[in-house]
Specification:
The structure is a homodimer.
Chain A lengths: L2 H14 L6 E7 L5 E5 H15 L9 H10 L4 H4 L7 H5 L1 H14 L3 H16 L3 H20 L3 H4 L4 H12 L3 H16 L9
Antiparallel strand pairs in A: 1-2
């Protein structure tokens, strides 16, 4: 690696550090019992851990390196675009446009081959057409849902009903029986904990 | 996955959430310029990103899935053992013993096959005998060093000299020329920024 390439990688990593300051709606609970917003960098590690635990539980395991690479890269655009709460309908409408513009900024600073590689991983995740992308999506959603159960109640506080979460969780359940088993177990706990908002009459 | 296996995985993931509350000495800087301690979960994601950027830059790239799996698992024992500052000599002396005991607790709650798999990844990383483990070690140390440069000065504040950091960084530089180039560039920036403590006379 020549000096210019090294400098570009360092600049990119310094920018990537900011993902640790992008807050999600889900909450994490410390050993003292105090909850705070999970950030997107922690989330990415946690999704990788879910993938590591579950990828041999599906009938045709996708390539683990490809899945974990996609997971490491999938939220980098949030450095520029911010996290979009999945149940904020107005914000979701503009999400794709905002994130494409963000991708130009975030990946554009890397040496072209590395930028293209990371951008391709992000696009594959977003498009969800490959088996690896669908597996990564299911891990991403299962982790977000688990975080909701751990953090008890960000759905209720935000007025999100069980039916609204189904729109995001049913595609994850459909990826493989292990995701369905995991997510339905979490639904039972969420219902028992009264974590969802009541439907409006 | 039967119900017992699912429940054990959920319990493990709920425990793993605590890695987001294990603070390291390196600091991360938010968009407002305020610095705070990086936590071990964020660190693990960041090390994965370093591995993703650098693994094609070495002469014989290790298997990416194996490397990223090792990186995702390598700090889980800190949930029980806490982070050990690399330059706290007394704490480092007891680190291996504390972490082995922690591994029994952290991995022991998983179904045996999954617990053995994660424990083996952690042990491979710790032992550093395989090419994949050495590559992961170099990514881990390069990320920690970069975080020191980004967070400007946790070494100086803790009385750590440049010579002390060499003991950890030279083995990472020896893994491949790309690590040497990256780390030496960071050393230049750290020196220019006056980030190390002066040697005691």
């Amino acid at each position: 690696m020549d000096a210019g390439r090294i400098a570009a990688v360092i600049d990119f990593l310094a920018l990537a550090d900011r993902l640790k300051h992008v807050e999600r709606r889900g909450r994490t609970v410390g050993p003292d019992g105090a909850a705070r917003a999970e950030n997107s960098a922690e989330h990415c590690w946690n999704v990788a851990l879910v993938a590591l635990l579950l990828h041999r539980e599906v009938a045709e395991p996708p390539d683990l390196g490809h899945v974990l690479a996609m997971i490491a890269a999938h939220d980098l655009v949030e450095i520029e675009a911010g996290d979009t709460f999945a149940y904020d309908e107005a914000h979701v409408l503009t999400q794709a446009q905002r994130e494409r513009a963000a991708a130009d900024v975030v990946f554009g600073g890397l040496p072209p081959d590395l930028g293209a590689r990371l951008r391709a991983l992000w696009e594959e995740f977003e498009e969800g057409r490959t088996a690896a992308a669908r597996f990564a999506m299911a891990c991403d959603r299962a982790q977000g849902f688990l975080q909701g159960v751990i953090g008890t109640g960000h759905w209720r506080g935000a007025g999100v009903t069980e039916a609204q979460t189904r729109g995001r969780m049913d595609p994850a359940c459909a990826v493989a029986p292990v995701f369905e088993a995991l997510i339905e177990t979490l639904y039972e706990r969420a219902r028992q904990g009264g974590m969802f908002a009541e439907p409006r009459a």
